[in-house]
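yo

u said u wanted the structure for the complex thing, so here. seqs first:
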Amino acid sequence: MQFNFSSFKKNSVSVLDKIHKLADKKGVSAYLVGGIVRDLLLKRPNLDLDIVLEGDAVRFAHELLKDLPQDKKTAPQLITYNQFGTATLDFSKFSIDFATARKESYPYPGALPIVEQGTIQDDLFRRDFTVNAMAIAIHKDQFGQLVDYYGGLDDLKNKKIRILHDKSFLDDPTRILRAVRFEQRLNFRIEQKTLALLKSALSQGYVETVKSARYFAEFIKILNEPFVRKYIQRLSELKGLNFLGRNFSLNVKLVSLLEQNRKVLPKNNYCFDDQQWLVYLMSFVDWRYWEGLEDKLKQFNLNKSNRKAVLESQNASQFIKKLQRINLAKNKIYRILKPLSYSVIVYMRLTTQSKLVRRRIDGFITKYSLITLSIDGNDLKRLGIAEDQKMGCILDILLNRKINGQIKTRSEELKEARRLQRKSMNELMAERNS
Ligand code: CTP
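structre next:
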């Protein structure tokens, strides 16, 4: 099979051409490999190019950089990882990864592999599935030719996810999640023997041989796919969610609700994409059954603010109940939502059945959360209010009033501050909480 890269964007074609010329000049074989080959054959978009060279990839990337435009606007950034023998050229709209062809062996299950230089055939053999183990030559007379040692093209045609050898899941248990990810994303099926080995890998506890953080990083990729529910259901059916802990219960209903509501989420008002995996994580597990949740989240390498968000989400139903009260003033809505993590607010917006709550959250996101006072502590000092506690309380009351639309301008804020100045601390606190 011969490719002409006509589906590639103009700038990737011109870089590919430069790679081709440099490979020929240096007499090294260069190949496009992995996901990009799969997606080219499936005519699916994929912007990132992976190149494998039967030669020194870092040096190659350095030399290529010299052949590329040098002006500040279009020149790519070169990032090298000498210890891995890899390099990335980052063009901002797309990137190209360079690696030296390698042969891998795993000293024990779940270990990081021992790597030595190899041929393209070795390099393809170390990969996860046949459909991801094809290459396209981009050197000399073989330019554009498909390299398929392991039957990837047939599996692609027959919509099969197949490992390359029986120890694949043992070598790298994260492939359990990858198998489900590609199966569901591409609408393929995991091939029979692969499925049997995957199930046996799960039942024999291979997952425990990998660092939780590494396994979870692969799980995040699933949670970032466009329609997560079917992936989760498939994993649950395979008993592939046990790594999350012993006492969790899957809440598919909530995931379905999230998926439906997501379609009608006002895109201009919410940023969901960055938060997607976290919001899904909140949705499909009934976290209340979890013991030691925070420790588990630490093992998964969630940072402090994401851990805080997941813990907060456990109480989402209480916040939603508060937001359902009739005659709730805008400033009360503000005070309920303001302390919460953004991802928890999005989670509530996407999983509540109440139109009223959705409307109130929209109001908070688009209006109240953006309101600020025109005056600050310095203005209050000039009025003679020196005490920190009093100052904080007055600013809170002023903000409440502004959110409720009772004051609008700077002079109205100052006038109201002067009125509040005369009140005692107890009176102020009562007014703030009223
Ligand atoms: N790969 C592998 N085993 C893994 C991870 C990656 O064999 N555990 C190989 C596969 O050949 C894969 C390539 O490395 O195609 C790139 O990995 P990745 O970027 O994770 O996957 P893609 O196939 O590019 O998928 P995506 O489209 O989701 O980026």
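DSSP finds 22 helices and eleven strands in the chain. Residues 34-35, 46, 127-128, 132-133, 172, 174-175, 178 surround cytidine-5'-triphosphate (CB under 6 Å).
cya
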